[in-house]
Design a protein that fits this description.
The complex is a heterodimer of chains A (333) and B (279). With 333 residues, chain A is α/β, with parallel strands linked by helices. Chain A has eleven helices and twelve strands. Chain B has 14 helices and no strands. Classes of the chains: A alpha/beta (333), B mainly alpha (279). At the A-B interface, helix 2 and helix 3 of A face helix 9 and helix 10 of B.
């Protein structure tokens, strides 16, 4: 299993400095990602979910080295990429790409879609004949007619633009793609098309996905494993079905209970969390979740729980994990 | 593009400005052919003639034909406009994009330079530069170019900051596109609209500044047929021969006004907010 790891993240941290007033000497930091550990295996799709502001997008950008981590190490295909210099990083970028959330902002409105998809090939010095062929192939793969390649982004719908964004990400034949809420801005019917396209392409190109979303049902559909984030770190990580059937962490349980079930016969008990998500500038001591957790005990307020494997391939950061183990979610699912 | 032209065409005033400027450009290009007399030709027998059939706009104190001098003056004015706006455009946009794109210390230094330049009244700054460089057409263009640089720098910086946050800039980075290519391919084409408007308006400013500097005697050399020089010379004869200064003044006013209404029209035509409303 160990040599199957494509991406490994160790104790990743990203603190953004926050201005705290002119006279104050003390610098405040927004702890967007705070001690995250994650292994991503070759060929899998790992879903990353959590409320807005929990650091999931930041995590994706850190792994792609679009942001500089404050602390921690990132390994890609066995090589550490945390401190790579500009030139080495540029050639590494071929292997990991990104699909963006907003299909309207991710394409330069002044470039034709041919130039947009060609850009990664140009940047990495592919020959013109090769570029032309690749662009045509890619358009066909993502389901955009070749004859449209001289058109501009505003002539396409949201779903089509997302397809163009995917084609651009695939141009360099990457091994790993971070998809940052790729369907959040699309209609539900289009969402399914894009998700299906992504999983077809995964089989064809042997891709590994880090799929960031806030919609659990979308993640459930596409992911092999799911990680749940809360205030900058993972609270639960397990195989997808396991997570839905044998939820351990109280936060995940609350999230799951919020998914509507299209059956009026099923009586559902929704867990309503109290209060707002605490500020990442000043996160609570101990377990980050204790301020909103209905089961919180003394230890939760004092000690930050370790992210540990409580069951095979099921990781949880909770002191009371044993209490919830093997308890099937009948009441919330 | 067609859509912008359509919206521009609906603005009659801007269209008028555009047509007037076209006429001026033709005059400037074909000045030696169109002008009825040599602008430097003095004639002692024909000094200070009021407008008549031989000299439509009259003659000045040396008997030179005013219409011919105005037509040749168009050349000077447009040359000053193009070159000085060119200088401020290139320098200002480079400064502004660097400040907006790289941020941090670079931004702080460039922004403060812009602020310092802005704190001088523009004609005063131009006068100081001219006093240092000395009077000549080249120096006028350099001085005006420097004076209008901070406007372009500020516009470019602001627009860059807006464009920089778009996901396509991040997409370019994730592909491995370098900073220079990102600026050329992704930033520059997307900040063009406000710059085009400023270019048009600045032409008007530049022509006005040249005329003002020349009028004050710190512009081009006195024998050059510039609108400002003609105004300056004409002011001495104002009571005797109004036409010597009024016609070049009108020409300058018309050109500056045309650039301003054209600039306003372009701004409305290129404004993305108006575009959304019409859709």
């Amino acid at each position: 299993m160990e040599n199957n790891i494509l991406v490994e993240v160790k104790n990743l941290k990203k603190y953004f400095p926050v201005k705290s007033g002119i006279l104050s000497r003390k610098k405040n930091y927004l702890k967007a990602v705070d001690g995250l550990n994650l292994k991503i295996y070759k060929g899998e799709t790992i879903g990353l979910v959590g409320e807005s502001g929990c650091g999931k997008s930041t995590t994706g950008r850190l792994i792609l080295r679009l942001l500089e981590p404050t602390e921690g190490k990132i390994f890609f295909d066995g090589k550490e990429i945390t401190d790579l210099d500009k030139n080495k990083l540029k050639s590494m970028r071929k292997d990991f790409q990104m699909v963006f959330q907003d299909p309207y902002a991710c394409l330069n409105p002044r470039l034709s879609i041919k130039s947009i998809i060609e850009e990664p090939l140009k940047t990495h010095k592919y020959r013109p004949s090769e570029r032309k062929k690749t662009v045509k192939d890619l358009l066909e793969k993502v389901g955009i007619p070749k004859s449209y390649m001289d058109r501009y982004p505003h002539e396409f719908s949201g779903g089509q633009r997302q397809r163009i964004g995917i084609a651009r990400a695939l141009a360099l034949n990457p091994k790993f793609i971070v998809a940052d809420e790729p369907v959040a801005a699309l209609d539900v019917s289009i969402q399914a098309q894009i998700l299906n396209l992504m999983s077809d392409l995964q089989d064809e190109y042997n891709l590994t996905y880090l799929f960031i979303a806030h919609d659990l049902s979308v993640v459930q559909y596409i992911s092999d494993r799911i990680g749940v984030m809360y205030l900058g770190s993972l609270v639960e990580l397990s195989e997808s079905q396991e997570l839905f059937d044998y939820t351990i962490h109280p936060y995940t349980r609350a999230l799951l209970s919020a998914i509507p079930i299209p059956d009026p016969e099923i009586e559902k008990r929704q867990i309503n969390l109290e209060g707002e998500i605490p500020s990442p500038i000043n996160p609570p001591d101990g377990c980050r979740f204790h301020t909103r957790c209905p089961y919180a005990e003394e230890i939760c307020r004092e000690k930050r729980p370790e992210f540990r494997e409580v069951k095979k391939e099921h990781y949880v950061a909770c002191h009371l994990a044993e209490k919830f183990i093997n308890k099937q979610n009948t009441e919330i699912r | 593009m067609g859509e912008i032209w359509y919206r521009f065409r609906k603005n009659k005033l801007a269209l008028f400005g555009f047509s007037v400027l076209l006429v001026f450009i033709i005059l400037a290009l074909a000045a030696p052919i169109i002008a009825p007399y040599d602008p430097f030709q003095m004639s002692t027998g024909e000094t200070l003639q009021s407008p008549n059939s031989a000299h439509i706009f009259g003659t000045d104190q040396f008997g030179r034909d005013i219409l011919s001098r105005i037509i040749h003056g168009t050349r000077i004015s447009f040359k000053v406009g193009i070159i000085s706006v060119g200088i401020s455009l290139v320098v200002g946009v480079a400064m502004g994009i660097c400040a907006g794109y790289f941020g941090g210390w670079i931004d702080i230094i460039i922004s403060r330079i812009i602020d310092i330049m802005f704190s001088f009244p523009d004609i005063f700054l131009a006068l100081v530069i001219m006093a240092i460089l000395g009077t000549s057409l080249t120096n006028v263009m350099i001085a005006i170019g420097i004076v209008y640089t901070p406007i372009f720098a500020r516009i470019a910086r602001g627009s860059t900051l807006t464009v920089k946050d778009n996901a396509y800039i991040e997409a370019a980075r994730s592909i491995g596109v370098g900073d220079l290519m990102t600026i050329i391919r992704h930033i520059l084409p997307n900040i063009l609209a406000p710059l085009i408007v400023q270019i048009t308006l600045s032409f008007g400013f530049a022509i006005r500044s040249e005329a003002a500097l020349s009028f004050l005697g710190l512009g081009v050399e006195p024998d050059v047929p510039s609108w400002g020089i003609m105004l300056n010379e004409g002011k001495d004869w104002m009571e005797l021969a109004w036409w010597v200064s009024v016609f070049p003044g009108l020409a300058a006013t018309l050109a500056i006004l045309s650039f301003n209404v054209l600039g306003d029209g372009l701004r409305d035509a290129l404004d993305p907010k108006l575009k959304n409303e019409s859709e």
